[in-house]
């Protein structure tokens, strides 16, 4: 049985997690490449511990996403794979990892992410 395609965090915690991910990307992201359901990111080596902590929290709240973190001497690499059925929505699900915090599709002002109805 696959995990439901939904974040289990309540609104304020989700907003805080998304902001932390975007902040790390803005400070330490070196490159990214989206290929359909897969996002490949490369962060500065010194971000490894912080990235692994963020990914650990993401694995708990967004079990439908697949995360692979690999430390290398030159950088830390993160590959995020979304369910194939997400199609073009895959890039929206992972945009905070590229340093963007945007309202999620289908949100309202009461969900906690700051989206518009």
Describe it.
Helix content is 31%, strand content 21%. It is built from three helices and four strands. It has helices spanning 11-28, 48-61, 90-93, and strands at residues 29-35, 38-43, 66-71, 76-81. Strands 1-2-4-3 form a four-stranded antiparallel β-sheet.
What distance separates the N and C termini? 32 Å
Estimated radius of gyration: 14 Å
**SS-based structural class?**
alpha+beta
Strand content: 15-25%
Strand order of the largest sheet: 1-2-4-3
**Unreliable stretches, pLDDT < 50, 5 or more residues?**
103-117
Major sheet attributes: 4 strands, antiparallel
Inertia-based shape:
globular
Percent range for helical residues? 25-40%
Q: Calculate the mean pLDDT score and round it.
A: 83
Number of continuous helical runs: 3
Order of helices and strands: HEEHEEH
How many beta-strand runs?
4
List keywords for this structure.
117 residues; four-stranded antiparallel β-sheet; 4 strands; 21% strand; globular
